[in-house]
Amino acid sequence: MDSNHTDDSRRRFMKGAMWVISASALGSGVMLSANASTAPELSQYKPVFFNDAEWHFVLAACDRLIPADDNGPGALQANVPLFIDRQLQGDFGQAKDWYMKGPFLEAPAELGYQSPLTPAQTYQKGIAATDTYCQKTFGKVFADLSAEQQDALLTQLQSGQVTLTEVSAKQFFDFLLQNTKEGYFADPIHGGNKNMAAWKMIGFPGARASYLEWVDLHNVPYPMGPVSINGDRG
Amino acid sequence: MSRQEQPVDVVLVGLGWTNAIMGMELAQEGLNVLALERGEDRDTVPDFAYPKMADELTYGVRYKLMVKPAKSTITVRHSLAETAVPYRHLGSFLPGDGVGGAGTHWNGHTWRPMPEELRLRSYVEQTFGKNIIPKDMTIQDYGVSYEELEPHFDFFDKVLGVSGKAGNINGKIQEGGNPFEGPRSHEYPLPPLKRTLNDTMFSDAAKAQGLHPFPLPSSNASEAYTNPYGMQLGPCNFCGFCERYGCINYSKASPQTAILGALKQHKNFAYRTGCEVIKVNLSDDKKTATGVTYIDAKGEEVFQPAKLVVVGTFAYNNVRLLLLSGIGQPYDPLSNTGTVGRNYAYQMMGGATLFFKDKQFNPFIGAGSNATTVDDFAINQIDFAKEGFIGGSYLLAAQTNGQPIHSLPLPPGTPTWGADWKKAAKDYYGHAMSISSHGSNMSYRDCYLSLDPNYKDDHGLPLLRLTFDWKENDLRMTQFMKQKVAALAKGLNPDFLKVSFKDIGTHYDVRPYQTTHNVGGAIMGTDPKTSVLNRYQQSWDVHNVFVLGSSSFPQNLQYNPTMLVGALAYWSAKAIREQYLKHPGPLVQA
Ligand SMILES: Cc1cc2nc3c(=O)[nH]c(=O)nc-3n(C[C@H](O)[C@H](O)[C@H](O)COP(=O)(O)OP(=O)(O)OC[C@H]3O[C@@H](n4cnc5c(N)ncnc54)[C@H](O)[C@@H]3O)c2cc1C
Ligand code: SF4
């Protein structure tokens, strides 16, 4: 799944790393670089899947779904839009693993996803329709609304109170929220969770995956910071 | 015309737990055994190697190790009157794909069934009278008893290296184990796993209410271990990437770590991957199979001749293969005739999440089956006549992973996004534990499997159609468990409590994950009118076809299925080795 991107980013990472040390903590054969931060700046990133209008929408929406404040990083600081851009180019966006043969019938919600649209198409149609709706209602696209207006609109998309042309507002919102949280908490190898800041905020140690000596230390906060699959330490 | 391969004695269709077992048993017998697996080859190294396994997005959320619905899925509807629609992406259940099957990414909860569950209809009728069984409930006896299976449970315990504490050894109740379980001939091969905070808290609360807590029997090894095949397991390190992942550590018993490494040493065993079997070929009189037809990785159709065909493709896939092959009569719920597809059942779950501001659970310290459990509300402990349902559940406090994308419980009323969501994630990650119920599901006349008239796979073959919904009996059972779980939860006095059990009238929902404990459809029994297989899991109609897996269950257990699935595979293997090979033919006369 998205193995191309993973490999690419790993290659980019290996090129970018200044030096590597072997880390016994990660097991033999695993190389680890000390705090090599290779995550690109979001402002420098040129999206591949999204066009300019779509990119503005996604930046604005992610900023409202997980805003920056003193509690921890916002979705933009965590490079979530970059993560989404990559996901939509890849297997997830193209629904490569999903059964997408017709007929596509109306069915009760409990019977699951029945749209003929891939997630990538849902984003494209959802963003265009939301911006059209905002233009009509406020005379501005979504990205140019005030934070309060944006929050109100996202709430309406989520509850299906607004109807969009050609796409389910709720389905569109659900993908957007799901992918935003994924990009926030996934291993940085996928492009989001920059500097593992979201993991640090909640106290998740990432890819350490070895805790035998800590199991019966009850009610004691785990003392070590996160590591990522690439071997970065948080 | 399809290409033809060299004949073999035995062809195994699928290479998960069931056919790893059958492969070992029949290779030991000296037969020429070939396994055909539709997915790719997989082993601990390189496929499950650290650190790539510790990737929640790829494996836990995008399901890299599971079946791809694009290649294989089913359609679903709630009732006979509806048109079924495809299960387009995974949710409710996560079937395996590739060598090892779902046994690579299971949790390792390793329960034996209760003796009463194997003869459920008889137990209910004898204990409470025939009248308490609702009209369209089609529960049956398995046709094989706990006592007959006990040696196989015992051996499979040793193959898996189960960590646990016995509650009943040869009828003598043991302190610290499950006092309600059937008698076992031996203690578990390994002691229980170390305990996490959540399950010590659950254990105290349960004891305070007069219940009998004990450690969940677990196929995550608590110590270094060598099984009867010489396969070695290392102690589980509570890596927190267990269910949905392959074990990085040779600790979770899987077909690879427990059997296949040894089986591959047998020169008379071979396996081919990328081979999807689409049909069991039959002789002209339809009384015997001549082999199987598969599509190989290049898309070529191949006929594989074999004297014996063992189907172990996972519960509902087995049913589809029988229907596509014309083995047995398809079930028709209207006329109540035929058998193939009859008695599909699932699992009834519920749960509570407890939040404690001042407790740190370190939820990422988890093993697939690290839990404390009680069985005080099991099938043999409930007065069905008084309570008004048939069934039971075990209750458990488990801590299996703290992966934040798909398991970040937050207090009730927390918004799903925005600054307040983020603050709650920061404040409450690591401060929640859960108590769940894992329960039985009865079978019904209109819950069944058939070929879908509208949807096809890439080969142009019809998908399997599932007709299923929750019934009042089972919803009443889960509502009963809700009271018990809520009482235990309140006993622990959490700051916040979230209780989630299905209400009466709830419809089956394919979206959230529940369990991959799909059962029935090719059930075993004593009467060919109401079962597809005889008590040895041999087809009533085609005697050289055996069908393994939870498709044999006439209704679901209150437990996880794999111990019974494995023991039944050993039971069938013994019948093949000791009886069938000497006198090929039906092992039970219809
Ligand atoms: C996430 C998860 C957690 C679980 N946790 C537990 C647990 O804790 N305890 C428990 O008891 N059980 C658990 N289970 C269930 C357990 O994994 C199964 O009971 C067990 O693996 C079934 O073994 P099987 O051999 O019948 O099928 P599988 O393991 O599914 O193997 C069947 C194989 O057949 C192959 N196949 C299918 N169709 C074809 C075809 N047409 N041609 C060729 N090959 C084919 C598949 O690719 C697969 O590899 C869990 C399952 C999942 C998915
Ligand atoms: S929790 Fe234990 S058994 Fe499970 S994958 Fe990790 S090391 Fe293996």
UniProtKB/TrEMBL annotation, chain A:
Highest taxon, organism lineage: Bacteria
Protein name: Gluconate 2-dehydrogenase subunit 3 family protein
TrEMBL record, chain B:
Key words of the record: FAD, Flavoprotein, Oxidoreductase
Annotated protein name in UniProt: GMC family oxidoreductase
Source organism superkingdom: Bacteria
Biological source species: Shewanella dokdonensis
Pfam families on file: GMC_oxred_C, GMC_oxred_N
UniProt-listed InterPro entries: FAD/NAD-bd_sf, GMC_OxRdtase_N, GMC_OxRtase_C
Gene3D superfamilies: FAD/NAD(P)-binding domain
Entry annotated with the keyword Oxidoreductase: yes
Presence of the UniProt keyword Flavoprotein in the record: yes
All residue ranges annotated as the Glucose-methanol-choline oxidoreductase N-terminal domain in the record: 234-345
Family named by the database record: Belongs to the GMC oxidoreductase family.
SUPFAM superfamilies the record matches: FAD-linked reductases, C-terminal domain (SSF54373), FAD/NAD(P)-binding domain (SSF51905)
Domain named Glucose-methanol-choline oxidoreductase C-terminal: residues: 445-569
